[in-house]
Amino acid sequence: MSTGVGEDLARVTVISPTRRIDLALPGSATIGEVLPHVVRFSGHEGSATGDPVHTWVLQRLGEDPLDPNRLVSALGIRDGEILHLRQRQATMPDAAFDDVVDAVASSTNTQPSWRPVHSRRTALAVLSLVLLGLPMVLALGRPGLLVSLTTLGLALGTGLAAVLLSRAFDRAAVAVVLAWLCVALAGTGGWFLLGTDEIGLRSLAACGFVLLASGTMALGTAIRPHAFAAVAVTALLLILVAMAAVLPPGRPVEAAAVAVAVLLGVTPLLPALCYRLARVAMPNLPTSADELARDDQPVQSDIVARAVAADRILAALLFATSVGATILSVVLVLDGRWSALALAGAVGLALLLRARAFVGLTQRLVVLISGLVVTTATVVRLALMVQDGVLLTVVGTTVVVALTVALGYYAAQMYNRFVSPVWGRFGDILEWLAIMAIIPLVLAVLNLYQLVRGIKGT
């Protein structure tokens, strides 16, 4: 019989102290959510006081009671299983083994064991450490053109091996590791290529090689092309920023301020752009009741595949913009001026609040991590600038305690509840305030206010 996990329903038989009942448990619900209904169907709703979740338990024969906080699908409940409804004070004991050896074997077999796949992962991890460690060791002695050429040669070799393993031998697991090593080695070789201490020129060369390597691996290996595309787009954005910082010498902070504002400005346009890139045909809104009744909108035969492609493209572009915004914000934080720090703080807050607009796991995660990194870096920089140790201790402790209480309460009570639309509107308002503050702060970083005051002679 098929499992209920695949169709999100598990048809089980529940044996209570007085009757047997057949139920279909939804896989997306927790045991604690369905338990009150099971108790009611079994005829014991009014036989005991207190919450049914704390009074009754569901358990398999010979096993511990099922965790009320876990989903039905996560517990592996299948069609045709028999579950026992028992009072918590009278749960059935675990299975007892007469044979000690059999008991030990049964218990240890449930623990994770070393498998051949772990051996392969270990070999790939050691391979990665060796390939990435060699350029670093060589650079400690005398970084220069020889180290760069050696690293780029390793990148070329790993790239060719990745394409060969992917195309000819169908070894995707090894090929994808070698492909990422090719990208990392290419960036490292580009960093050491130019014999200069100028960070902008080094970044320009490194990002150029990363762009070349990631694009080649995306096309050559055809393994996870969206991930390599995300790295390629990130490298392209950083190339543009590095060029803007190098062309006017000595102005990297100003270039970073303008670039981060542009990145945040284009983020809302990414979803529509992704649908266009995936060529998803958007339906036209009916203009009359007759058009609404006819419902003759053509549907693409591969609409699902195109929608998935659009989702992956959006994740790649969000990764690129988030990484770019993080690096640019770090440049602002290191500058230390109040205008640069305020701009970095506004960027971090805007990213944290904008993450609410994306429901995909990867999409929201990259934006959240970017916002957390930028906000944390800004706060740490501000803390290092405070000279009064007592003030820093008091304020820092207060902020940490407040965040601990708020996040702890959210993790314990509010994480799975629907937030009131009022709070959502407050979040929208705060997000737009943070975004609107970016432009004036960019002008402050560019010293345009001082320029205007100088023109007026004040």
TrEMBL record:
Residue ranges of domain EccD-like transmembrane in the record: 119-455
Mode of membrane association: Multi-pass membrane protein
Swiss-Prot/TrEMBL keywords: Cell membrane, Membrane, Transmembrane, Transmembrane helix
Subcellular location(s) of the protein: Cell membrane
Annotated TM spans: 122-140, 146-165, 172-193, 199-220, 227-247, 253-275, 313-332, 338-353, 365-384, 390-412, 432-452
Chief site of localization: membrane
Keyword Hydrolase: no
Keyword RNA-binding: no
GO cellular component labels: plasma membrane
Protein family: Belongs to the EccD/Snm4 family.
Name of this chain's protein: Type VII secretion integral membrane protein EccD
Provenance organism: Auraticoccus monumenti
